[in-house]
């Protein structure tokens, strides 16, 4: 008996849907890997689950690099010539893109310290203000965590010092009691000697 063909519609049962997703995702990733190895093809695969979890595969470099190559390919309408020429043009275009991204990052860095704000629109200024407020809040939260940790360590050190102080006082007290007992014993012996001395002398005289 042949295998029953699954109807192509959304699986309503959540457990069955998750099991099917996991199996088919692994199968798709395996097929992408096999295609890249057997045919020496550049393959990029991105899968998002219904919960937003991402799974990805890239045959060369990483997914971002292959997607960048795809973007450049579409922008030039595929007019990149031979493979060697494609690689050269791709490298040049990618370098240009990286420089553009670097310029954007430099501009954002200046904006974050309050420089070059004239070209920003009201919406961009509001977004920047929100980012700064978020950054300040994170800094403040981090400071509070460090302060709390420092306070906790300080309290522990004070407690240890107090325990050491009590232990030292106990030892000193014990030594003091021993010294007092020894002194009293010496005084008692001296008194006994002094008291018995004259009597012995009188007896000898008799």
From TrEMBL:
The keyword Repeat does not apply. One of its GO terms (molecular function) is protein dimerization activity. Residues 88-178 form the K-box domain. Residues 1-61 form the MADS-box domain. One of its GO terms (biological process) is positive regulation of transcription by RNA polymerase II. One of its GO terms (cellular component) is nucleus. Residues 122-171 form a coiled coil. Signal peptide: none annotated. Pfam families: K-box (PF01486), SRF-TF (PF00319). Keywords: Coiled coil, DNA-binding, Nucleus, Transcription, Transcription regulation. It is found in: Nucleus. The keyword Lyase does not apply. PANTHER family: SERUM RESPONSE FACTOR HOMOLOG. This is Uncharacterized protein. It comes from Picea sitchensis (Sitka spruce).
